[in-house]
Amino acid sequence: MSTIFYISIPPNDERRTLLKPTLSVFDRIIELDGFQSLFKQIYNDRVLDANYNYENGVSIILYDPAAYTSTCKDDLSIRHFNKVLKRFLPVLNLKCYDINTTVPKDLVHLHHDLIITDNRIFRMHHWMYDNLTTQNNTNSNNKNNTSVEGDDESNFSCSSSIYKMIDHLTFFNRLNTTDPSESSALDDHIIIPEFLKSLNYESLIIENEINNETSILDLDYFTLFNDWDFPANNLSIKQLLICSFKLIEILSIESNLPIQKNNLFLLLFTLEASYHQVNKFHNFKHAVDVMQATWKLSTLTLNNFPNFNILKLLLSLAAIGHDLGHPGTNNQIICKNDSKISKEFHNKSVLENFHQTVFIKLLNDQWPNLIIKMNSILDFNIIRDAILATDMALHNNYVSKLKEINSTPKIQNITTSDAKNPNQQIDLKTLISLIIKAADISNVTRPLDISAQWAFLITLEFNDFNLLEKYFNIKSNLNINKHLLKDTSMIKDISDLMNNDIIQNLTTANINNTNDDDDDNDTYDTTEDELIASLNEIKSLPSLDTINNDIHLTLDALIEKYPSIINGQLFFIDTFASGFFEEFSKALPQLNFLSDNIKSNRDYWLSKRK
Ligand SMILES: [Zn+2]
Question: Which of 376, 517, 538 is nearest to 471 (CA)?
Fold first, then answer.
């Protein structure tokens, strides 16, 4: 769903008339009086779990800087404002234009962008790669350099407003840089705009609260957060924001690192807008769930370490940022296709490196005292190391490490108080990695009904991932199968089905090469019918990611509708979770409830296997 925002532009202004034909693709028009109302509208749309999440579709903001700046304290040039959007609403498809200089030609890419953002497979592909994106944008704005600014840095790929991981990384890498050659970037970013500082975030959460049986304020969030049966999927985004706020507020006070209420809310809203709401599993709910588990496990294991309050704060924060910008895919697929983002991290823990880099930059930007404090008390970057530990490729290393710990004679049953004490069972660095790693895969250790909800969501996300793989298969088949490419009716079918120039460009390029090395066919393993079936499947996906209410089905109804959950859970428990949690609980017996829960969940899934 796409929105046009007009900021302080009269309804009958003739500049609107000129752009009207280009803008007919939008679903709604919103008239606003300023940038604070814009952010209020966007935040409200995001927290209401509605279709206007700014990830389906693209949205644009048209305003007149000349008319607006005179009444406002902030520097609101188009260039600056587009940076504000990237900085505080990172994964949203938003772009700002100057109504005085924008002409229809500057907006032609919108039609192409919409084709991508209305299909979740094209969209996931676009997030990760840039080799097949539209080619018609890069030169379209040269005539008037002031019309579409904000992408003036060479590394930002094109004038498209669709989110891309590489742009996200490049942008945050430049935040608060100490490199003098980037000093202009420093000037741009160091100050939080006045309209964001003065926004009343608390009332934003409380306002418009739907009249539920339980009011949002009546819930005892801290008690809710304290239980291992934390029901993240039964809570709204507003409620998750309040839970997170309360926890971080308490931990920051205990750590003597207080943060102003509004600053903490802004950080949390920025984090929410750094996760893809359209992902079924790797979204803000998962982030808050992992934070809850991390905090809970920390309180049970870290209390004997020096600075344990600040350790709990830093580790809880690492958890809420640990999957930031996650594309709902995995490292294999990102590396396999040679993306810029995988090169950036030399194909090593690419996603985890992406999450930690962007998240630490974000904290540096919005809570610099915290990073300074972290560096002063620890000789390692706990946030970076914790996030890197969540790479599942390291799973077996952690199991081996735990086995080694468990095979050495125990001095005592709890972690010892001194991180440098040679007698301790688990050193601090290892322990923080184990805690966040355990929290990240803790779904299977939750009470059965909660565990099943997560199992359902990961099943949905895997389904999308499988479609993405089919999409890659289509493309590689087009690359290698000359027989398909020689059949022009097939090309037309594909182009019609894909309904955009992505495949058209690809096929045209390959037709020109069809006479070369004709002996590639041995890698071809998909029939034409299968290919067409995959294309149809992808093409027929609904443009809106409708909220799937099946999560609220009873357990029996859920597994009857999605029977693959049973084997999926048994596979994950038997291959990864069971061995890990058994060893983890053996090393730290206060965590026995984790392996007990897994055992009883496993018994249930076994009893349901036919
Ligand atoms: Zn995760």
Answer: 538
323 is in an annotated binding site: yes
Mind listing the pLDDT tens digit for each residue in 538-571? 877 776 666 678 888 999 999 999 999 999 999 9
Q: Which residues contact 193 (CB under 8 A, 6 or more apart)?
A: 35, 74, 84
Instruction: For residue 574, give both structure tokens.
Output: 């038997």
Of the candidates 265, 106, 154, 282, the residue with the CA atom closest to the CA atom of residue 199: 265
Give all strands (DSSP E) within 386-451, no chain letters.
none
Contacts of 454 (CB under 8 A, 6+ apart): 233, 281, 289, 443, 446
**Residues at Cβ < 5 Å from ligand 1 ion:** 323, 440
- Give the whole-angstrom CA distance, residue 415 versus residue 90: 39
Give 390 Cα–ligand 1 centroid separation in angstroms.
7
Residue of 189, 282, 326, 355 marked catalytic: 282
Report whether 143 contacts 184 (CB < 8 A): no
Other beta carbons within 10 Å of 293: 26
Q: Is 299 left (phi over 0), alpha (psi -120 to 50) or beta?
A: alpha
d(CA 420, CA 280): 42
Retrieve residue 407's tokens. Answer: 């095979």
Q: Which helix (H) or strand (E) holds 276?
A: none
Annotated binding residue 545: no
How far apart CA 465 and CA 354 sit, in angstroms, is 19
Domains of the chain: 3-129+161-174+190-194 (no CATH), 201-409+425-439 (1.10.1300.10), 442-479+527-609 (no CATH)
- 379 assigned binding-site residue: no
The tens digit of pLDDT for each residue in 142-155 reads 333 333 333 333 33
> 24 to each of 54, 160, 543, how far by Cα in Å?
18, 18, 17
How crowded is residue 18: how many other Cβ atoms within 10 Å of its Cβ?
Answer: 13
* 206 Cα: distance to centroid of ligand 1 (angstroms): 29
Ligand 1 centroid–CA 382 distance in Å is: 17
Residue 166: in which H helix or E strand, if any? helix 165-173
Is 112 considered catalytic here? no
Determine whether the annotation assigns residue 440 to a binding site: yes
What global pTM score does this model have?
A: 0.87
